[in-house]
């Protein structure tokens, strides 16, 4: 979401509390990295908010003793449920105790609504549900007795994590896990905006990887809307966000699944067809693009030198080099925290817009990562006037994302292939080019090889 719209919403929207990352993400001393939830404002004004919480796009139902939906059961849920959660006297939902069921219900709604708000702004239009021919609203079920979570046609229903002993871990409700909810909503956005492969002959290998990557990128872009998360990420790395082998620099955040996915160093030759594994080079290439756009703004604003940018992107470097690069970033970051933050938010918004324009232009049929690359390069012309083409190409080349070797795009076409010349050179001074009944309206003669060389 653009920083301007975010500021405007602060005056009109409804306030909720969300934990940017799960509370079980802890520091070395065992305390949570994000002990307090952050206040977040969704676009629905208090006057239009319904108990649940609910609005015209989605609603929470806190089902009691519900079994997970299966192939035979689907929304709407009609069984027993706890009373819908109401706002406080001020019309907002910031009064709820983070350890209460009501908090879980409200935070699940707020997370999904917030991510939808963010991406509707990047798309510049209303995002329809992919199930809107059947249901008008998304059903959100926050806490069922299940050590799992699932999204399906018209619903998201969430249970809990698992203890090491394999039982349900009630301290880890998935509905409070921002990354998981945002990832699932990312799938919905891609279903709606890209669609699904239509041919039974289409194995959809890259489509599957693209779906998982899109879920993760949705979550990362949304996560970068938390002030506390942005400050923590920059404070820990000092702005040295280079992803390859960068996990050691993100400190406590390296336990965050979302950060592990973003800061991955996998290339196409490292992965197979399994969608989650296959998503990693694509996610890495796109996240790297954002990081390099961020660094470019730092250079343009005189916050880091072009030399530091170049050293940090030229890999692999020696350990000494990497230490020096980190020391240089620390010196540059000191006293310029606000400027670094602004540059990162600008890069985030560039990536959000880039993804929206890209997804809006992709065909799901026989989709390849190379199609995604081409769509990104074209989207960059729309979003930045083509300013970041070289960055995108370099990031994708490093990840080995290229046309498949048997792609027609890689075929070479000689003049013979195009019917513009015969295969065998002849010794005559001139000859007709279309040997087998060429049309009279086409060019009729070209120089022979011999004559051309001598002319
Ligand atoms: Zn997924």
What is the topological layout?
Elements: H1 3-12, E1 14-18, E2 38-42, E3 58-60, H2 101-123, E4 138-141, E5 149-152, E6 155-158, E7 160-162, E8 168-173, H3 178-193, H4 205-223, H5 227-237, H6 257-262, H7 275-300, H8 306-313, H9 319-333, H10 337-361, H11 369-384, H12 389-398, E9 430-432, E10 445-447, H13 449-454
Helix pairs in contact: 2-3, 3-4, 4-7, 5-10, 7-10, 7-12, 10-11, 11-12
The structure holds zinc ion.
Zinc ion binds next to α3 and α4.
Assembly of the depicted chains: single chain
Q: Identify every distinct bound molecule in the structure, by name, code or SMILES.
A: zinc ion
Write out the strand line-up for the largest beta sheet, numbering strands in chain order: 3-4-6-5
The computed structural class is alpha/beta
Count of alpha/pi helices:
13
Number of domains: 3
**Share of helix among residues?**
40-55%
Mean pLDDT: 90
Outline the low-pLDDT stretches.
435-455
Q: How many DSSP-defined strands?
A: 10
Q: Which series of helices and strands comes N to C?
A: HEEEHEEEEEHHHHHHHHHHEEH
